[in-house]
Amino acid sequence: MKNDLIKLNVQFFAQISGKEPVREWLLKLSKEERMIVGQDIEVIQRKWPIGWPFVDNLGDGIWEVRSTLGNRIARVLFYIEKNLMLLLHGFIKKTQKPPIQELNLAKKRLIQWKEKK
């Protein structure tokens, strides 16, 4: 995989305050869990476009990457624009479908990001 060219540059969504919620969420995970999520994001960077079951289109331009962390499932919601992968929201998924409040938060952050571009 190291020979694959990076197709997407990763950017963390930043709030007006400068906080990066996805980065902060990642730091709360164990080192091993962060590595797994990071490797999954790197696969997307190098292999985009990539489809289900690794990545799912949730609509409105928002995508979801799934990372298996032992008996837990992590989700990172992101947006793609040209060669940019914007990480909007990360959470541990407890249900089969993406919780509507998690998706709505990602949509809200995407709107904020587009407004300040």
How many helical elements?
3
**Average pLDDT, to the nearest integer?**
93
Q: Name the helix and strand elements from N-terminus to C-terminus, one letter apiece.
A: EHHEEEEH
Strand tally is 5
The total number of structural domains is 1
Radius of gyration: 14 Å
What strand order characterises the main sheet?
1-5-4-3-2
- CATH homologous superfamily title: RelE-like
Secondary-structure class: alpha+beta
Q: What features would you describe in this structure?
A:
By secondary structure, the chain is α+β, with helices and mostly antiparallel strands. The chain has a single domain, classed as RelE-like (YaeB-like fold, 2-Layer Sandwich), CATH 3.30.2310.20. The chain contains three helices and five strands; from the N terminus they run E-H-H-E-E-E-E-H. It has a five-stranded mixed beta sheet with strand order 1-5-4-3-2. A hairpin with a 2-residue loop joins strand 3 (62-69) and strand 4. The longest helix is centred in the middle third of the chain and has 17 residues, at 31-47. The chain is globular and about 40 Å long. The mean pLDDT is 93.
